[in-house]
Amino acid sequence: MTIMFNKHPVAPPDDAPMRERVRFSDLEAGYRGRPVLRRLSASIPALAMTALVGPNGSGKSTLLGVLAGVIEATAGQLHYAEGRPPAFVPQRGAVGDALPLTARQTVEMGRWNERGLWRRLTRRDRALVDSAMERLGVAGLAARQLGELSGGQRQRVLIAQSLAQHSDLLLLDEPTTGLDLGAREGITALLTDLVADGTTVVQATHDLEAARSADTCLLLGDGRLVGQGPPEEVLTPAALSRTWRPA
Ligand SMILES: Nc1ncnc2c1ncn2[C@@H]1O[C@H](COP(=O)(O)OP(=O)(O)OP(=O)(O)O)[C@@H](O)[C@H]1O
């Protein structure tokens, strides 16, 4: 599926069959009166882990929002290879602590896209919820309130919600931020397993260790793409100090 945005129409991408899950060209997006992404062109390889790296405010969340379809691009072209709609796990801070939801209800929300808000979950929906919770090791937390959980537990519940969507494209915004080392390693190992099981994973991260273990990396600076490729080629000391240089 290709989505065209106006303003800067660009030539259609090559018709060559893609090993890419998503490709975008000259993508621009932002907020009212605040352009953020500036003519970004890159691709997200299928069945691999892509790390989105860059300083605060460089546009990582905005790019994830565009890829997830929650922020509309203002220009450029976005092409998704065949597959299911993406599942998006926003930053932890974006999910209200005060929501009166249990862990299980939170994961069940992952079925709303297909089921609709008011329809009862089917047996298959419940099975998908059960298996996502088992997979994330949070089945035992089913009846606990989301706001009572530790950061690592909450993050697992939110990832289980995205798995319940049964997507093959998982977009995560800083899934390990604020977690202790054990929880960080646990989430990173889980994401690696998901890739091995056939999911394409994109994560925005400030965790350079996680970024270095990704298959590929997009380095953003001030809304522009300043590097893409294998982490060892992109995350060089020179590139990092250039990108994080104070303005
Ligand atoms: N809802 C919003 N309304 C207006 N401006 C916003 C909004 N969200 C983000 N911005 C601005 O857009 C720019 C890019 O923000 P974005 O959150 O995409 O960056 P980021 O790389 O994810 O940052 P961080 O690492 O701090 O999460 C920043 O200047 C930010 O202030």
From TrEMBL:
Domain ABC transporter: 22-247
Pfam families membership: ABC_tran
GO molecular-function terms, A-Z: ATP binding
Gene3D superfamilies assigned to the protein according to its UniProt record, in alphabetical order: P-loop containing nucleotide triphosphate hydrolases
Keywords from the named record: ATP-binding, Nucleotide-binding, Translocase, Transport
PANTHER family, per the entry: HEMIN IMPORT ATP-BINDING PROTEIN HMUV
Protein name in the entry: Zinc ABC transporter ATP-binding protein AztA
Organism of this sequence: Streptomyces ardesiacus
